[in-house]
From TrEMBL:
The organism of origin for this protein: Prunus mume
Keyword Nucleotide-binding: yes
Pfam families to which the protein is assigned, alphabetical: DEAD, Helicase_C
Protein's recorded name: DEAD-box ATP-dependent RNA helicase 20-like isoform X1
Family statement drawn from the similarity comment of this UniProt entry: Belongs to the DEAD box helicase family. DDX21/DDX50 subfamily.
Keyword flag Lyase: no
Feature: compositional bias, Polar residues: 35-44
Length: 572
């Protein structure tokens, strides 16, 4: 399908075939874009039925939002060189690996690699950066930052990406997946014709939150430090859009963005997708949860035909599988460990506390910890406290500070500057307690977090797994303490059941995604109804109460104040 950038689509009805796009003003094919000027009529996003269905906010009414400056910029004639598909080969030693050895390496690295029956075999995993035959500047930066051996996801995902294949990657938190796509992305960009002023980026990374986008850009910069004139831009909400506009129009190699703000810049004509040939959708499950699916689809369906897509997700719900089927071409699917399972390195404790006593119990727990580490001469361990609401987040942080503890709040109500400062202080260790909403539960890679405390439990098992995944990362041990009340009994029952399953030698697995969460809510409602019925039964005497067998394990005595797995860990 030929491509016309979204902000340049004619207001006339567009007829599309597999090779041309016809409007009242021009006939453009992908190969002709370098020869033609952009149409000079009042442009707007296509308002046909398919576009409206996939992304209604890009309707005809948006035309009034564009400045004349954006339109004049878009009307310039721009030469667009074709994307170059790098010809990459690993070292001879890797090329000589026999199937038996490849299978042995996959087993050792806990890798599950699969391809569709009609696809070529996946590239072999590579356990040495030197054997990946990377650009000398990238190798220099890898050595500079002290990386010596690829992690499991890097060992398999990087060869796949370097070979030009699409990738569907699933790995537990703290697995090093950012570098797994950042390094091949930089190598891909180095093979392309240089970016000129007015060009769109060569590579695009979409992420669900500002904090994760900033973390990704920092990693991209780390591995391109030695490359002269390699430019990146971070495009997120909550920051100065004028500065982003200047960066984008000057031309950058890589854009790391949240979907909404990137669409804003496309809409204003500040950038385009015409030169993008490498796309990463990171934490894709989270982006879908946050309602970004229309924006993702708008970007993906307007890319040039010659592009490579990497999709990373911590979980694999059916929505992600559908997205992958639609936008990935014969992808290599790589899983590390058991997807949707808590890390084995986290010791979990459940403690029943009434709602009114939660803050006091938290203060007692952390003050006791502060006294203990002071006696031993060790620093206070980095701790994240998760709460449900923004207002509670500030209240708890203030209460901790009043007790002489070093705490800071992080939530969506804070300005971008405040959020950045909070994370910076926490990473440096000048503040050792971060009180946060779920904005910090996904993707943030802060090394050395020793303790995660759920002051308020989340609503789903999936979110619980992501929260406790902030600790026990990169092979280190961690601790998770969760306070719960009667309203949390459904989730608590599932946590206990999972711990019991591990004790029995059974695998821990649970469904993820929107459909799974809906079913979880329905099951929670049924469990609550059963408890109410039992309560009435105890008051009024024997009566007929029908409880489905699958919920009976939840109706257990939960009067003990402290329960959990002090010495138990969940299966990896």
């Amino acid at each position: 399908m030929s491509y016309v950038p979204p902000h340049l689509r004619s207001s006339s009805t567009t007829t599309t075939t597999t090779t041309t796009t016809t409007t009242e003003t021009s006939s453009v094919t992908l190969d002709d874009q370098s020869k033609l000027s952009y149409p000079s009529s009042n442009s707007h996003f296509n308002n046909d039925k398919s576009s409206a269905a996939s992304f209604s906010s890009f309707s005809h009414s948006n035309a009034s939002r564009w400045s004349s400056g954006a339109i004049s910029t878009a009307n310039r004639a721009l030469a667009r060189p074709d994307a170059v598909i790098p010809q990459w080969k690993p070292s001879e030693r890797v090329l000589r690996m026999k199937p038996e050895l490849i299978e042995e390496v996959c087993l050792r690295l806990n890798l599950d690699v699969s391809v569709s029956p009609d696809s070529a075999p996946a590239p072999a995993p590579i356990e040495s950066f030197a054997d990946m035959c990377l650009h000398p500047s990238i190798m220099k930066d890898i050595a500079y930052h002290g990386y010596t051996t690829p992690t499991s996801i890097q060992a398999q995902a990087m060869p796949v990406a370097l070979s030009g294949r699409d990738l569907l990657g699933c790995a537990e938190t703290g697995s090093g997946k950012t570098a797994a796509f950042a390094i091949p992305m930089i190598q891909h960009c180095l093979a392309q014709p240089p970016v000129q002023r007015g060009d769109g980026p060569l590579a695009l990374v979409l992420a669900p939150t500002r904090e994760l986008a900033q973390q990704i850009e920092k990693e991209v910069k780390a591995f391109s430090k030695s490359i002269e004139s390699f430019r990146t831009a971070i495009v997120v909400g909550g920051t100065n859009i004028a500065e982003q506009r200047s960066e984008l129009r000057a031309g950058v190699d890589v854009v790391v963005a949240t979907p909404g703000r990137f669409i804003d810049h496309l809409q204003q004509g500040n950038t385009s997708v015409t030169r993008i040939s490498f796309v990463v959708l990171d934490e894709a499950d989270r982006m879908l949860d946050m309602g970004f699916e229309p924006q993702i689809r708008e970007v993906m369906r307007n890319l040039s035909e010659k592009h490579q897509t990497l999709l990373f997700s911590a979980t694999m719900p059916e929505e992600i599988e559908e997205l992958a089927q639609e936008y990935l071409t014969n992808p290599v699917q790589v899983k590390v460990g058991k997807v949707s399972s808590p890390t084995a390195n986290v010791t979990q404790t459940l403690e029943k506390v009434s709602e009114s006593e939660k803050t006091d119990r938290l203060l007692a727990l952390l003050v006791e910890e502060a006294s203990r580490v002071e006696r031993s001469g060790h620093p206070f361990p980095l701790t994240i406290v998760f709460v449900e609401r923004k207002t509670r987040c500030d209240e708890v942080a203030d209460a901790l500070v009043a007790q002489g503890l070093h705490a800071v709040a992080l939530h969506g109500g804070r300005t971008q500057g405040e959020r950045e400062a909070a994370l910076r202080e926490f990473r440096k260790g000048t503040t050792n307690i971060l009180v946060a909403t779920d904005v910090a539960s996904r993707g943030l890679d802060v090394s050395g977090v020793a303790h995660v405390i759920n002051l308020d439990l989340p609503k789903s098992m999936e979110d619980y797994v992501h929260r406790i995944g902030r600790t026990g990362r990169a092979g280190s041990m961690g601790q998770a303490t969760s306070f719960y009340t009667d309203r949390d009994m459904f989730l608590v029952a599932n946590i206990k059941k999972a711990i019991a399953d591990v004790g029995s030698g059974n695998a821990v697995a649970f469904a993820t995604g929107k459909t799974a969460r809906r079913k979880e809510r329905e099951a929670a409602a049924a469990q609550k109804q059963a408890r109410v019925a039992l309560s009435k039964c105890s008051i009024t005497g024997p009566t007929s109460v029908n409880i489905e067998d699958k919920y009976r394990f939840m109706i257990a005595d939960s009067n003990s104040k402290r329960e959990g797995a002090a010495d138990s860990a969940w299966d990896d």
